[in-house]
C-alpha cells in the first residue's frame, strides 16, 4: 500500500476550539486550552503516524486584526499555514457567521487545495441551529466540504480524520515515525506555565506575559526546571507574585502537576518573575521568544 503524508493546517477565529481539535487528533495535550482569546501564540505541529500515513497537523493562532508587534507576528504564523497546506481545516463555532479578516476569508474561498469546513461545538445547540449553520456555510464557502463536530466531546472527529487520510497525497513521511511534535521540551514547559497564568489572572496581565525556561536538567527520575515569567511593568510583577507569593505558588503547583503528567517524571519547578519592558513591541525580544517568522 502506498504511503501518504501531508500538512493539515487548522485556522479560524479565536476561541473556536482549534487546540481542542488538534489534541483530539493527536491523542496528546500538545496545545494549551483556555477560554481566553489568543491562547495560541505560535504555530504548533502535532504529528499523527500510522503504518501507511503521516498527518502533520498545524494549530495556528486565532485570526485577529493585529494591534501590536506580537499580534502581527502571530498572524504571520497563520499566513504561513496557507503556504504549505495539503488540506485546510477551517473551524467555525456553531452560531458564528463570519471570519474576522476579509482577506483571509477570500484566501479560503479561493483555495486550490481541499478545504474542510468544520462546525464545532454542536453539543451547545439544537438540530435547527445546526441545519441553519450548515446551509449558511455551504453558501459562504462553496468550495468546502462541511462537517459537524464537537472536538470537546470527540464527536465527528474520526470521520474528519478519515476524510483527511483520503485527501492526503502519496509521499514519504516528513518526520521520524516516533516524533509527536516539532517543538522542544522547553516549549511545553513555557506553554504549561502560560496556560496557568491565562486561567488565573484577569484583564491585560496574561497577555503581557512570556515565559523563558532558563534551565531544564533531566535525570533518570526527576527533571529540574527553572523558568522566568516576563512581564512588561512592575505593577504586573506584583500581581503575578500575589500576597506573600501565594498567586505565584498556585501557578507553580498546578504547572508542576501537568508537567509531571506530560513528561511522566517527578518535576522540580522554580519560578521567578522579571520585568521586560514593552517586550511585545520589541522586534529583538520577539525574535528571542520565537515569534519572528522570517
Question: If you had to describe this structure to a student in words, what would you say it looks like?
Answer:
- This protein has 294 residues and is of the alpha/beta class.
- It has two domains: 4-167, P-loop containing nucleotide triphosphate hydrolases (Rossmann fold); 185-288, 2-Layer Sandwich (GMP Synthetase, Chain A, domain 3).
- The protein has helices spanning 18-26, 69-83, 102-109, 127-140, 157-167, 185-200, 234-241, 246-263, 283-288, and strands spanning 4-12, 44-50, 53-59, 87-93, 115-120, 144-148, 210-218, 222-231, 266-275.
- Strand 7 (210-218) and strand 8 form a beta hairpin.
- Helix 6 packs across helix 8 (246-263).
- The relative contact order is 0.14.
- Residues 31-41 have low confidence and may be disordered.
In short:
With 294 residues, this protein is of the alpha/beta class. 36% of the residues lie in helices and 24% in strands.
Which keywords apply here?
single chain; alpha/beta; Rossmann fold; GMP Synthetase, Chain A, domain 3; 6-stranded mixed beta sheet; 3-stranded mixed beta sheet; 9 strands; globular
Please bin the fraction of helical residues: 25-40%
What's the CATH superfamily of the largest domain, by name? P-loop containing nucleotide triphosphate hydrolases
CATH A-level architecture of the largest domain: 3-Layer(aba) Sandwich
Number of E-state strands: 9
SSE order in H/E notation? EHEEHEHEHEHHEEHHEH
CA-based gyration radius: 20 Å
Segments where pLDDT lies below 50 for 5+ residues?
Answer: 31-41
Give the overall form. globular
- Average pLDDT confidence is 82
Terminal-residue CA separation? 38 Å
What's the story with the biggest beta sheet? Answer: 6 strands, mixed
Amino acid at each position: 500500500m502506498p504511503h501518504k503524508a501531508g500538512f493539515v493546517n487548522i485556522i479560524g477565529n479565536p476561541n473556536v476550539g482549534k487546540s481542542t481539535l488538534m489534541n483530539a487528533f493527536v491523542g496528546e495535550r500538545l496545545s494549551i486550552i483556555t477560554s481566553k482569546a489568543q491562547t495560541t501564540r505560535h504555530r504548533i505541529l502535532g504529528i499523527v503516524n500510522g503504518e501507511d500515513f503521516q498527518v502533520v497537523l498545524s494549530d495556528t493562532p486565532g485570526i485577529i486584526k493585529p494591534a501590536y508587534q506580537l499580534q502581527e507576528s502571530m498572524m504571520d504564523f497563520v499566513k504561513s499555514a496557507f503556504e504549505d497546506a495539503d488540506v485546510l481545516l477551517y473551524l467555525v463555532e456553531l452560531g458564528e457567521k463570519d471570519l474576522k479578516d476579509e482577506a483571509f476569508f477570500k484566501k479560503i474561498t479561493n483555495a486550490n487545495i481541499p478545504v474542510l469546513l468544520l462546525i464545532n461545538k454542536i453539543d451547545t445547540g439544537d438540530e435547527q441551529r445546526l441545519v441553519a449553520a450548515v446551509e449558511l456555510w455551504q453558501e459562504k464557502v462553496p468550495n468546502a466540504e462541511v462537517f459537524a463536530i464537537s472536538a470537546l466531546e470527540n464527536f465527528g472527529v474520526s470521520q474528519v480524520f478519515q476524510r483527511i487520510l483520503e485527501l492526503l497525497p502519496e509521499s514519504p513521511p516528513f518526520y521520524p515515525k516516533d516524533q509527536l511534535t516539532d517543538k522542544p521540551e522547553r516549549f511545553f514547559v513555557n506553554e504549561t506555565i502560560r496556560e496557568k497564568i491565562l486561567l488565573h489572572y484577569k484583564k491585560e496581565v496574561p497577555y503581557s506575559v512570556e515565559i523563558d525556561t532558563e534551565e531544564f536538567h533531566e535525570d533518570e527520575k526527576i527533571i529540574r526546571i527553572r523558568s522566568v515569567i516576563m512581564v512588561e511593568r512592575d505593577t504586573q510583577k506584583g500581581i503575578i507574585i500575589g500576597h506573600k507569593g501565594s498567586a505565584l505558588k498556585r501557578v507553580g503547583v498546578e504547572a508542576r502537576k501537568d508537567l509531571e503528567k506530560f513528561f511522566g517524571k517527578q518535576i522540580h519547578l522554580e519560578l521567578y518573575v522579571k520585568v521586560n519592558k514593552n517586550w511585545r513591541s520589541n522586534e529583538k525580544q520577539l525574535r528571542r521568544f520565537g515569534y519572528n517568522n522570517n
